[in-house]
Amino acid sequence: MQRRARSQDAKLRRAEDLLEAARTLAAERGGVRHITLAAVTEVVGLHPSAVRRYFDNKEELLLELAERGWQEWRDAFTTHLAGAKDLTPTQTATALGVTVARLPLFCDLLTHVPLSLEGEVTIDRARRFESNSFTAFDTMIDTMTATGTMTTEQAEDLLAAAVCLIAHLWQVSHPTPALTRLFDEEPHWGRMALHFEPRIIHFLQATATGLTMLTGRPALAP
Q1: Rounded mean pLDDT, 40-44
Q2: Would you call 129 exposed, middle or buried from its count of C-beta atoms within 10 A (0-12, 13-18, 19+)?
Q3: What DSSP state is assigned to residue 87?
Q4: What residues contact 42, with CB distance under 8 A and at least 6 apart?
Q5: Would you put residue 162 in left (φ > 0), alpha (ψ -120 to 50) or beta?
Q6: b/e map 45-75, b = 16+ CB within 10 Å
Q7: Tens digit of pLDDT for each residue in 43-68?
Q8: Tens digit of pLDDT for each residue in 8-25?
Q9: Is the pLDDT of residue 134 over 50?
Q10: Is residue 183 within 8 Å of residue 175, measured between CB atoms?
Q11: What are the helix (H) ranges across the chain?
Q12: Taking the C-alpha atoms of 60, 65, 69 and 70 in order, what is their torsion angle to the nearest 10 degrees?
């Protein structure tokens, strides 16, 4: 029993090493699209085939980081608004933008979760991701309604819109080297590629303001 426990502890530590290596490489290489399993395992000192002891594939490793990103955003957001009362919709939107901008890896991963990550893992792993991410989502909704003046429906719509906006705007705001050169030559094409934080805050403020002017939601499809 003791040997088994030590082996399990070692496995958990090695899995954490792989996740940390992926974080480091994403920061160094300009995003998760440049991460390979070979590079991750090289940092940790493993043979690429050995990663399957810890994660089925690269997508499962990155999905784990995305799941933790939701928890990190939830914690940062609830801490940021601790003690707040009667916030306006634009103040709530600002808090969403400020806190998510501090999580660059999560912003990047939000693009890849629906694009590839969830579709390349087992259904049980996808179910776990959905369960944990929606738990974080719901906690953030509760925080928004407890500290601000938005209704639950408005808060849900704002957070859903935030995820969509972040996923696109992060990529546009962090162009590839080739696009960076192109935007240097044609600045009017690169206007959307600058200053992620103030732009996401502005878009979320506008969305929050608009949501408070609407009555009801479109009917959901059966």
Answers
A1: 93
A2: buried
A3: B
A4: none
A5: alpha
A6: ebeeeebeebbeebbbbbbbbbbbbbebbbe
A7: 999 888 888 889 999 999 999 999 99
A8: 788 889 999 999 999 999
A9: yes
A10: yes
A11: 2-29, 37-44, 58-80, 89-101, 104-112, 123-147, 152-173, 177-185, 196-213
A12: 20
Confirm if 117 and 66 have CB atoms less than 8 A apart. yes
Question: How long is the chain?
Answer: 222
Q: Which residues contact 186 (CB under 8 A, 6 or more apart)?
A: none
Reduced to 3 states, what is the DSSP secondary structure of residue 168? Answer: helix
Encode pLDDT of 183-207 as tens digits.
Answer: 999 988 887 777 899 999 999 999 9
Alpha-carbon torsion angle 105, 49, 130, 159, nearest 10: 10
| CA–CA dist 106, 122 (Å, integer) | 21
Mean pLDDT, residues 147-163:
97
Q: Among candidates 19, 25, 17, which has minimal Cα distance to 66?
A: 19
Distance of CA 48 to the CA centre of its chain: 26
